[in-house]
Write a structure and sequence with these properties.
By secondary structure, the chain is α/β, with parallel strands linked by helices. Helices cover 32% and strands 25% of the residues. Helix 1 packs parallel to helix 4 and helix 1 runs parallel beside helix 8.
């Protein structure tokens, strides 16, 4: 048994868990990070970091030049109808009046950047790999965490708090909510890949194309090469089918061939974009269902708190899953500064975030900002000559404004907000 009475134990070294570890180091709190995989590798493809998350990374000492190495500052968010005509477009990040940019980055490269920062600050053994959290037990003064490795060895780690940042298949959440419903699948199937291609529109645009039942999302995750003009483009192809039979494949992230899905988009060719050619340029293509979990009423059990996907995995339609994990970690750090490493701190996080973020999960089920395409389809089947005649700008802008406010990154509110954690703040020993 390993005792660290004042330490915070973190289950999971993903984006949320690593951001929390960096935050705890910043405020002077000891932590132990337990990760089930043997080696952290840059897995995944593109994600978006909203300005509210970028603000937090800056406050952790991660600067723009470092983020520029793993991604690109997003300039525009645009929706285009199946006929190739604009439905909605708006500037993003600095161009939209935020004090911080929005970034499109490679998820795995962001995870490794956070990991390298943590190693710089805490040393090479800051994350214990091949250490899978299997259970927990609340004690009078903290929590006992059961850990196992692939060799079958088990041990207990004793700490003040356990933070479950162990993702969609969270063991911590499963113990906290043993009767939770199964993972929810809407019928949407995603195929994801990256291709070298010419970036669209501004050169740093996020573009959604199609309808609410069949669409493409594309955005660069790096700048165009100065000689070739080509950039690494992250793309997601999505088709919705009848979900009543359930997801029949046990592999949630399997590699597939182009022929497995490209027929859905064979005629998606425009003067400004050739979708079949874009997806054909990927060296690897992965298929998985678009899933989330029903929101839960509480994220706390005694001295245990859920954050990130373990607490609120959400559809990627709002492009804010990773951003919310970062914000969760920072708000927890602020709560620990205010209350100490105890149950009161994690209860305050739950009270502040649980209902609010659960509402965002449900909004994303309703397509999040992509709801614009749903409304368009209801009104005209997605076919139009003049968007103003079927879907006036004032209505489109209201939908977007409501979503950004609910998700916590409306520009005016974010720009006026005090830092989550004041510069130099340290916990009182």
């Amino acid at each position: 048994m390993e005792k660290h009475d004042k330490a915070i134990v973190i289950a999971g070294a993903g984006i949320g868990g690593l951001t929390l570890a960096l935050t705890l180091h910043q405020i002077g709190v000891h932590c132990i990070v337990l990760e089930s995989v043997g080696v952290l590798k840059p897995l995944g493809v593109g994600i978006n970091l909203q300005p509210n998350a970028v603000r937090e990374l800056y406050d952790l000492g991660i600067n723009a030049s470092e983020l520029d190495q793993i991604g690109i500052q997003t300039k525009e968010w645009a929706l285009v109808g199946r006929n190739g005509k604009d439905v909605y477009a708006e500037p993003r990040g600095i161009s939209a009046g935020y004090q911080w940019p929005q970034y499109s980055v490679h998820r795995g490269q962001l995870q490794l950047l956070l990991y390298e920062k943590l190693k710089e600050r805490l040393g090479p053994n800051c994350v214990r790999t091949d250490a899978r959290v299997t259970a927990y037990r609340n004690t009078e003064n903290g929590v006992a965490v059961s850990v196992s490795n692939r060799a079958g060895q088990t041990s207990d780690v004793i700490g003040a708090l356990l933070i479950g940042a162990d993702g969609l298949h969270s063991v911590v959440r499963a113990q906290m909510h043993p009767n939770q419903p199964p993972i929810s699948w809407s019928g949407a199937i995603l195929w994801r890949g990256v291709s070298e291609a010419k970036p669209l529109r501004t050169g740093a645009s996020f573009v959604g194309l199609g309808s609410h039942t069949k669409r493409m999302v594309m955005y660069p995750i790096g700048p165009a090469h100065p000689e070739t003009g080509l950039a690494t483009i992250n793309w997601i192809a999505e088709v919705t089918v009848d979900p009543s039979a359930g997801w029949g494949d046990s592999d949630w992230n399997k590699q597939v061939d182009l022929d497995h899905f490209v027929h859905h988009f064979k005629d998606w060719q425009y003067e400004w974009l050739d979708v079949p050619a874009l997806v054909a340029g990927a060296t690897e293509i992965f298929e998985y269902p678009m899933v989330d979990r029903d929101p839960i009423d509480n994220w706390v059990d005694g001295n245990v708190l859920l954050i990130g996907d373990a607490a609120h995995v959400m559809y990627p339609t709002g492009s804010n899953g990773a951003s919310q994990a970062i914000v969760d970690a920072r708000i927890l750090g602020a709560a620990i500064l205010a209350h100490g490493t105890n149950a009161l701190a994690i209860q305050s996080v739950e009270q502040r975030l649980c209902a609010e973020v659960s509402a965002v999960v449900l909004r994303n089920r309703s397509a999040g900002p992509f709801r614009l395409l749903n409304v368009l389809d209801e009104r005209c089947g997605g076919v139009f000559d003049d968007i103003e005649q079927v879907f006036p700008a004032v209505e489109r802008e209201e939908i977007m404004r409501d979503y950004k406010t609910a998700a916590g990154y409306a520009a005016e509110k974010l720009n006026a907000a005090e830092p989550t954690i004041a510069s130099g703040a340290k916990i009182q020993s």
